[in-house]
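Problem 12. The chain below contains 419 residues. Write out its predicted structure in token notation.
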Amino acid sequence: MTDRLFAKQEFIDHDIGAVRQQSVNRPTIFDKCGKYTRAKEAMAAGVYPYFHRIDSDQQPDVICDGRPMIMMSSNDYLGLTSHPKVKEAAIDAVRKFGTGCAGSRFLNGTLAMHEEMEARLAKFLGKEAAAVFPTGFQANLGAISALVGKDDFVVIDRMNHASIYDGCRLSYGQIKKYQHNDMQNLERILEGTEGRGALVVVDGVFSMEGDIVDLPSVVDLCKRYGAGLMVDDAHSIGVLGENGCGTGEHFDMVDDIDLIMVTYSKSLATIGGCIASTEEMVHFLRHHARSLMFSASLPPAPVAAATMALQIIEEEPERRQQLWSNANYLREGYQSLGFDTGVSETPVVPVVVGDEQCVLKMWRLLFDAGVFASPVMFPGVPKGKALLRTSCMATHTHDHLDRVLEVFSKVGHELGLLS
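Solution.
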């Protein structure tokens, strides 16, 4: 009897061991994590450019990794994140409403200040209504996925922001991509959408290249083929147009845009986003955009900060004028040195290098010399088009920019990029 029990236990132990061995050898969903080595290789080589800690506010001069640097990678175009009025508005909102809304806008998370912000933004952007989202990313996700159904097309510029791509993937529609600012390519795609619903989604200012969408041609094609038009004005608000109202104002075509997406994380000096459109469309999105309905409401502090930033944009046009003066000065400075600034025509001023390894070396040399710039490689830009992205702020002085140009010149010669 005892022998039979031992034999049975031995069989069970053997069987469990075999199962465990199979489990050890079986591929798991987490295997990809251990196989990803690119970032650690860059760290080991001393050319890892991401997640560097900044220990100061977003000024032209920052403290990064414990030492002073000139910030040339910020999207705080008008320099409002440290404006005393913006900071005080955020602090007052926390004192009055606390640190959060403890729910979604759809349920218990709507405050009077949300509604005030929506009304002010709608008026500023020349639309009937607006809906506040927790982030600009979520505004794109929510709007596109809610509007584009399984029988529809969504047509996008290949250089659009990742949030637009992700919004398209969350929709059930067919995604079509056209070559960057290529209107002939866009028309060929729209020709194939006739008889079906279609939404064209474009960036107003393209965040890596720094160029502006050919809005008049896009509007003409949308009208000709019956497509809707959505413009992502993340990098345009406060920057383009006589009053900083964005791409539509820049081209005097606000009424030709069906939806405008705005993020607060650039010129509006905080975090958040909104969609501005007709009353009817905003009402629809309030009840169908999942990233608004099922995400916690934007807290009081950023709502108050963005509202105050918008007021400053309206009251201080000289900030935008200084921003453009700085942008032109920097771009002309790069070009006079012999650098390629691509198609840039805005405060986003890239230095196009091409080779990814060279871009990483260049980033390291710039960083060591006290200039904070951002290397951008595939898939952020097409292969062979790697670049250093720099951007101006209204609060940069010419002394800042002259020092940056001096460092770029030295590094460019050291790497053989300049003759």
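Discussion. Residues 153 and 178 are 13 Å apart (CA to CA). Students who got a different answer should revisit the alignment rule from Section 12.3.
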